Amino acid sequence: MEVCPKACSCVALGYKDPPEISVERQVVFSGEGQEAALVCIVHGEAQPEVMWFKDTMQIDQTDRMITEARGARHTLIIRKVHAMDFGNFSCVADNQLGKSRKSIMLTGKPNVATFRSAPISQWRDKYNISWTVDCFTPIEEYKLYYKPIFSSQDQGHQMYGPKLRSPFIPDQPPSPAYDTFNYHAGYGNAIHWGKNEWRDILLAAVPQSKHYTQGMSYVIRNLDPDQQYEAKVQSR
């Protein structure tokens, strides 16, 4: 008896993903009357359609808002930014495999401060700290924060007296909520300094309306030697 061989039919199964989006910058800094460019990079196996949104409203191309596409790079150019333009934008890529979205924030607020001063003070009891901030509009004021850095064995230790020292270690800006500096009544009005407490100083900015990069320096006095500090700056 002759037996027929089994027939086998094979089907290749494949899974394709929706478009992939990455953004060049999650936060774009600009100013009123300036130009802003929001960029997203889009990849997809099936050619996706790319759309831009401001909040939930799709953006139509105008003389002031222009979209460009060069390969995978998609750009929304905003000419002469208006105050109403600041906020959240979305880049949306859509094809038959699905839809993807990435957000970009356009802001007129100052950029993060960059410290320019030397890490070690040339004086024993004071430190000249300086910084610059990129901003398209004049900065009105700065708030400088600083505190000592304690070693691990000082965990939870509270220090009394004006224990302010140098050198400084620059850091990123703190949260918008201002930290407090507590004063305790007693002999000599001693200062109670907790481990995680910041001292802050409000400084009026020097007007520099025509300069994108603005900055300031300030001498912090009454410091003790041989102690590191960290410093932070808020701008507005």
TrEMBL record:
One of its GO terms (cellular component) is axon. One of its GO terms (molecular function) is axon guidance receptor activity. Pfam families: I-set. One of its GO terms (biological process) is synapse organization. SUPFAM superfamilies: Immunoglobulin (SSF48726). Keywords: Immunoglobulin domain. PANTHER family: CONTACTIN 5 (PTHR45080), IG-LIKE DOMAIN-CONTAINING PROTEIN (PTHR45080:SF33). This is Uncharacterized protein.
